[in-house]
Design goal:
The chain has 281 residues and is an alpha/beta fold. It has a single domain, classed as Vaccinia Virus protein VP39 (Rossmann fold, 3-Layer(aba) Sandwich), CATH 3.40.50.150. The protein has 10 helices and 7 strands. Strands 3-2-1-4-5-7-6 form a 7-stranded mixed β-sheet. Bound molecules: S-adenosylmethionine.
Length: 281
C-alpha cells in the first residue's frame, strides 16, 4: 500500500521545491566553498565513503555536484532524485552526468527497482526530509544486499565563531518575518544524531552507523563569509532587502572582533558523516 505524504511533508516539500527552483546551482556553490582544514569539501568526504561502488543513487541530489564527483571517481551507473526540476536541469548540463538517471520526485517513494544500487548517498538532504522512515524503507529496498548507505547531515555551528554569531543575530529577523510563506519546520531532528539515525535505520535492516564529525569553513573575509551564509541558510529568503542589508551591516560590524591575523573570519560548521551497510552479505 502506498502511504500518502503527511501534511508536514507536503508543506516542507512545496517550500523546498520553490526555493531550489529559484536558485539552481547555488547549493553546491556554497557546499564547495566549505572546506576542512586539509582542503576537502564535504562532497569529497562522502564520495570517498562509497569508493568502488558501481551503481550509486543520490537522494536530494539537487544540482548534481556529488554525482559529478562520483562519476569522476569511476562509478558507472549513477542516479539521482530531487524535488526541484530547476536543480535537476542544472545537473543535466554537467557533461559527466550525461548518462545519469536523474528523476524529479520524492525520496520517500523511489522510482527505482529493488536491489538496483550498490550504494545510496545523501548530502545535507536527509535531515530536511519529512516521513523519514519511508526514506529509510525505500533506501533499504533499492539497495542490493550488503549495500552501503552514506549520508552527511548538518551538525550546527562551532561555538564562538562567525556562524554562531550570524545565527544569533539573524534569528530575531527570521522570527519577525512578514514573508507570505515563511520557511516551515524542516525534517526530523533524529537524523542529526547518531542514536536518532540508528533508531530510524536499524528497523529497516541497516547496521548501526559509523559516525564522524568534520568541521568545514568558508575560510574567507567577513564579506565572503556573509555571502556564503546568505545563500545557504534557507530562512534568509524570508527577509526583505532592507532587513537583509541591516543584518549584513550588523554581522560585518560585530564579526570584526573575530577576524584572524590573516584577515579571515573563522566560521566553522559541523557536518556529521554517517555510514552503514544493509544486512545480507
Ligand atoms: C540542502 S539541499 C542539498 C543538495 C545537495 N545534496 C547538495 O548538498 O548540494 C537539499 C536538497 O534535497 C532536496 N530534497 C529535500 N527533500 C526531498 C525529498 N523528500 N525527496 C527528494 N529530494 C528532496 C531538495 O529539493 C534540495 O535540492
Amino acid at each position: 500500500m502506498i502511504t500518502p505524504p503527511s501534511d508536514a511533508a507536503v508543506a516542507a516539500e512545496d517550500f523546498l521545491r520553490t526555493h531550489h527552483d529559484g536558485r539552481p546551482g547555488r547549493q553546491s556553490e556554497g557546499g564547495e566553498a566549505l572546506l576542512t582544514a586539509d582542503g576537502r569539501s564535504s562532497y569529497r568526504i562522502l564520495a570517498d565513503r562509497v569508493a568502488g561502488a558501481r551503481r550509486v543513487l543520490d537522494l536530494g541530489c539537487a544540482d548534481g555536484r556529488l554525482l559529478e564527483l562520483l562519476a569522476e571517481a569511476g562509478a558507472e551507473a549513477l542516479a539521482g532524485i530531487d524535488l526541484s526540476e530547476g536543480e535537476l536541469a542544472f545537473a543535466r548540463r554537467r557533461p559527466a552526468l550525461a548518462g545519469a538517471d536523474l528523476r524529479c520526485g520524492r525520496a520517500q517513494r523511489l522510482p527505482f527497482g529493488d536491489g538496483a544500487f550498490d550504494a545510496v548517498v545523501s548530502h545535507m538532504a536527509l535531515m530536511l526530509m519529512a516521513d523519514v522512515e519511508h526514506v529509510a524503507a525505500e533506501a533499504a529496498r533499492v539497495l542490493a544486499p550488503g549495500g552501503v548507505l552514506a549520508v552527511a547531515v548538518g551538525g550546527g555551528a562551532v561555538e564562538g565563531q562567525a556562524r554562531e554569531l550570524f545565527l544569533t543575530l539573524a534569528r530575531p529577523y527570521f522570527r519577525a518575518t512578514s514573508a507570505p510563506a515563511p520557511t516551515p519546520r524542516l525534517g526530523d531532528r533524529r537524523t542529526r544524531s547518531r542514536d536518532g539515525l540508528d533508531e530510524i535505520l536499524t528497523p529497516h535492516g541497516f547496521a548501526p552507523v559509523t559516525w564522524e564529525t568534520v568541521t568545514v569553513d568558508p575560510r574567507g573575509t567577513p564579506e565572503r563569509v556573509w555571502d556564503v551564509m546568505a545563500f545557504t541558510v534557507y530562512d534568509m529568503a524570508d527577509l526583505g532587502a532592507e532587513q537583509t542589508a541591516e543584518l549584513r551591516t550588523r554581522f560585518l560590524a560585530e564579526s570584526r572582533a573575530l577576524v584572524a591575523a590573516d584577515g579571515r573570519l573563522p566560521c566553522g560548521m559541523l557536518i556529521h558523516h554517517a555510514t552503514t551497510r544493509l544486512a545480507g552479505r
